[in-house]
Amino acid sequence: MEYFIAIVPPKKYGETITQFQRRWSDNTMPDFVEPHITVKSQAGLKEDEYWIDSIKTICSNFPMFNLSLKGVKSFGKSVVYLGVESDRINVLHRKIVEAISPNPENSRRYYELDLYEPHLTLGSKEYGMSEIELLEMKESASNCFLKFQPFIVDSLRIYKLLENKYRTIQEIALEQTGLSKIS
Fold first, then answer.
1. From CA 68, how far away is CA 14, in angstroms rounded?
2. In contact, 28 and 48? CB cutoff 8 Å
3. CATH no., domain 3-173
4. Beta strand spans in 19-178 (E)
5. Burial level of 112, CB count in 10 A (0-12/13-18/19+)?
6. Of the residues 26, 86, 104, 179, which has the maximum number of CB atoms within 10 A of its CB?
7. What is the largest CA-CA distance in the chain?
8. Is-contact 64 152, C-beta < 8 A?
9. Is 92 in contact with 64 (CB distance < 8 Å)?
10. What tens digit of pLDDT does each residue of 152-182 get?
11. Residue 107, pLDDT score
12. Can you state the angle between helices 11-21 and 131-144, rounded to 10 degrees?
């Protein structure tokens, strides 16, 4: 089984992103997984799910934090994404990776630790898009996502691949602090 751990943007942002993704009929991503920012990829997340207790412990001791989706970027010619600005997401990522203890080779393979670049994927070759479509998407996205305001991250979701789609199996709250939701 494949798992990953992610942050999900506010519902209205997710709906806007999904509508944008569906403008390209070859983009199968919205049929496979909802818009998210991966905090921990599948390396070390085993089917026994014993690691979930470690995630709960980390989350219960990690305060909510601000996050912004800013700028449209790409990984070469194969992925278009929204950049992420946050002073805490890399710290949370590192804590989770260290607790799960994947081997260093897997961490490199899945772009973790120092290779981690938090992002929200809009489209990719892996999900059916061509280089030309990705270029069009990147140009179009630059004008579509300017109104997104920063938001408070108050939980993480654990996803599991079930019936050819990633589905939430648990949502785990972060430590509740004095931060209030930005509307």
1. 13
2. no
3. 3.90.1140.10
4. 37-40, 65-75, 79-85, 119-124, 151-153, 155-162, 165-173
5. buried
6. 86
7. 46
8. yes
9. no
10. 999 999 999 999 999 999 999 999 875 555 4
11. 64
12. 140
SS3 96: helix
What are the boundaries of each domain within the chain?
3-173
pTM: 0.91
Residue for token pair 């970027």: 73
DSSP letters spanning 113-137: GGG---EEEEEEGGGT--HHHHHHH
- What is the side-by-side strand order in the sheet with 155-162? 37-40, 3-7, 155-162, 165-173
Starting at the edge strand that comes first in sequence, how are the strands of the sheet with 65-75 ordered? 119-124, 79-85, 65-75, 151-153
Phi-psi region at 28: left, alpha or beta (left = phi > 0; alpha = psi -120 to 50): alpha
Structure tokens, 32: 């496979």
